[in-house]
Design a protein that fits this description.
Chain lengths: ~400, ~280
């Protein structure tokens, strides 16, 4: 917190110091104006009346001026403001002009006060020069104190965080982190890529995930692959997958990996165990995809009255080499490869993948279907491009064609 | 106690908070600058005081006069007087319009020495002599009508389109009583717009000098600038200016004589000599 606060101090001081100078100057200027107005208001009637009365029965007023001016100067020599706490300590007023007769002074004049009145039908005037002593300690001290107070409060105020950072901050607070630690950690949010920020937002929705753990781990995963957010959502929904695993899946390569020994496929890093027979049919389609060009990998469903014996043998061999179910093997031997069997196993594969991944994520790893022009029957091939198919633990381990 | 730093929920809150913080010192400085003077008490500009040098006696010799002209000089003269010093610590001279003097002042003897018209003093208290003793008659003087255009005449034809200035102090012999009486005696009745009244002698003189009025009454020479270009017509050649009255209980021949001697030194205020009224004069 200290770093956060003091980092802003130089900029705030740049505002504070000229501000205090302006406020001090303003308060002195304003106080002098008010005092000059107040003096004028207090003197306007009584002083003009006293001057007029003093000239009773005098044919010429000039000699009286010399008598009056020292009296007036004496009366106005020590003018004290009512409130001691102010920028002006004391003032004095001196007569500069009375009824047209000048009375020069060497005193520095801060404000001029002009009093006008009528004697008989003749206008008369008196000009006073107001000189004030400034109480510099308070004239500077009060604005400085108030400015410093405002500065200290200003230092302690932070603008609202960006929405994402605010969410991280609140999650950290909710998880029991100290205010200052939460603020410090939340600043990492600004360093994340947009994909990472979006993914973090998802993670913060999961009460079971520690927000700091999520924040720290997510920095290791770029979230630049298309659909990474959806894969993260899917992975987080799968039991037994922890935060690290979910992040790995979300950022995994877009590939379909077969593990024949475990009857398991790994789709975008997410392992999906399958029953042996659907797995081996899935593997058979994958091998076709790897073995042939994209157009040749189509397999037309055999006619219902004429099972495919040749491909049945290929499948039997595949199943036997990977410990396939004897019933499925016997069935193929006895009855050949039938469209119905193929349809059932593709359906099972689709069911298993869709159940876990949802239709949208599963679709690229399932089957394309078209009607064959020659036979008018349906033909199928694996949707996944061969380049993104791998078979591990087989003769073709690591092979990508 | 909120944890620091405080995070604002919205940008609006943050901006409002910053504005409030900026206003804090500004409002503080504004409040801080709201200074006013303590209530001012002006001194007395109608009096002058001097010390006699007698610091054991704090009694003050009070003098009432009609004008500030030479008032301070008179007070200083009295302060220097050894007899005054023996009896008083200070002399205060005060000047007011004639109407200031009341019967109560005379009966209670508020002033030790006062200068006023005989008719004013005795008009207020017919047996004023029981309270005050006249010790000096100040000089009598000649009073004139004064005009800038031509020698003034007390005729309807002359005054037809002219205005006359008067003092609004109806006890003023020079500027109200005598000129009004002269007009009355001549059977002349001025229209209201031909009569202008002014609050003091100074204002009356300025009105005449500026041409607001055509005719005034006054002494010769007048105090108006370029007096030599003015026209004078005698109004009254023997106008009493007044008398100095000493409070009767203070009357001692030697003290009264000292006072009278000091007072006649200021004869140059008016033409002619003052007259000491003490029986047998001053030795």
């Amino acid at each position: 917190m200290t770093t956060t606060l003091w980092r802003r101090l130089p900029a705030l001081l740049l505002i504070l110091l000229p501000g205090i100078a302006c406020l001090s100057a303003f308060s002195i200027w304003q106080a002098m104006n008010l005092l000059a107005s107040d003096l004028e208001a207090q003197l306007r009637d009584p002083l003009s009346k006293a001057i007029t009365e003093a000239g009773v029965n005098l044919p010429k007023q000039q000699p009286l001026n010399a008598f009056l001016v020292p009296r007036i100067n004496s009366d106005l020599a020590a003018l004290k403001p009512q409130r001691a706490l102010g920028p002006i300590h004391s003032c004095r007023a001196t007569v500069l002009q009375l009824r047209g007769e000048p009375f020069p002074t060497k005193t520095q004049i801060d404000r001029h006060i002009l009093l006008n009145w009528i004697e008989g039908e003749q206008p008369k005037s008196l000009t006073l020069g107001l000189s004030c002593n400034i109480a510099w300690p308070t004239a500077i001290g009060i604005p400085l104190g108030l400015g410093t107070l405002a500065l200290l409060i200003g230092i302690c105020l932070l603008p609202p965080l960006p929405a994402g950072q605010q969410r991280v901050f609140e999650s950290l607070i909710a998880s029991g982190y100290e205010h200052s630690d939460a603020l410090r950690h939340s600043q990492q949010w600004a360093l994340l890529r947009p994909g990472q920020q979006h993914a973090l937002d998802q993670l913060l929705d999961k009460p079971a995930i520690d927000p700091l753990d999520a924040l720290q781990q997510i920095t290791a995963h770029p979230f630049t692959r298309p659909g990474a957010q959806n894969w993260l959502t899917t992975a987080l929904a799968v039991e037994d997958i922890d935060l690290a695993g979910a992040l790995k899946i979300a950022n995994a390569k877009d590939e379909l990996v077969f593990y024949p020994q475990q009857y398991c496929v790994q789709v975008h890093g997410l392992s999906i165990p399958l029953p042996s027979t659907p797995f081996l049919y899935y593997l058979w389609y994958a091998q076709r995809k790897l073995a042939c060009s994209d157009d040749d990998s189509w397999f037309v469903n055999p006619p219902s009255n004429n099972p495919d014996r040749h491909n049945a043998e290929e499948l039997v061999a595949l199943m036997e080499s990977h410990g396939g179910h004897p019933k499925a093997i016997n069935d193929l031997r006895d009855k050949g490869l039938r469209a119905k069997t193929l349809d059932q196993n593709r359906s099972k594969i689709k069911e298993e993948l869709t159940q876990l991944l949802g239709e949208d994520l599963a679709a690229p790893y399932l089957f394309d279907v078209e009607r064959d022009h020659k036979t008018a029957r349906f033909k199928y091939r694996l949707s996944t491009p061969a380049a993104r198919i791998r078979i591990v633990g087989d003769g073709a381990e690591g092979r990508t064609i | 106690m909120p944890s620091l730093p405080i995070l604002c929920r919205t940008t609006t809150h943050y901006v409002l908070a910053l504005i409030a913080l900026a206003c804090l010192p500004a409002l503080g400085a504004w409040w801080y600058s709201q200074q006013h003077f303590e209530k001012l008490n002006l001194g007395d500009y109608l009096s002058y005081r001097c010390e006699t040098g007698n610091y054991r006696d704090d009694s003050v010799f009070q003098v009432l006069t009609l004008t500030s002209a030479q008032a301070a000089d008179l007070a200083n003269q009295l302060c220097k007087n050894p007899l005054m010093k023996q009896r008083y610590g200070a002399v205060t001279i005060t000047w007011h319009p004639r109407a200031f003097l009341t019967a109560k002042h005379i009966i209670e003897g508020k002033f030790h020495l006062l200068w006023n018209r005989h008719h004013v003093v005795h008009g207020l208290v017919p047996d004023a002599a029981a309270f005050y003793q006249a010790i000096v008659d100040t000089p009598r003087y000649a009073l004139y009508w004064i005009s800038r255009e031509s020698p003034p005449e007390l005729s309807e034809h002359y005054l037809k389109n002219r205005t006359i200035g008067f003092s609004n102090d109806q006890q003023s012999q020079t500027f109200y009583l005598r000129p009004m009486a002269a007009l009355q005696a001549a059977g002349l009745h001025l229209r209201p717009e031909q009569q202008r009244f002014y609050p003091g002698v100074g204002a009356l003189m300025e009105a005449f000098a500026s041409g607001e009025v055509d005719i005034i009454s006054g002494l010769r020479p007048s105090t108006v600038e370029n007096d030599e270009q003015l026209h004078y017509t005698l109004l009254d050649e023997n106008v009493p200016s007044g008398s100095w009255y000493l409070r009767r209980d203070l009357y001692r021949p030697d003290f009264a004589c000292e006072l009278a001697t000091s007072l006649i030194k200021f004869d140059d205020m008016l033409d002619g000599p003052s007259t000491i009224l003490l029986p047998g004069g001053c030795q």
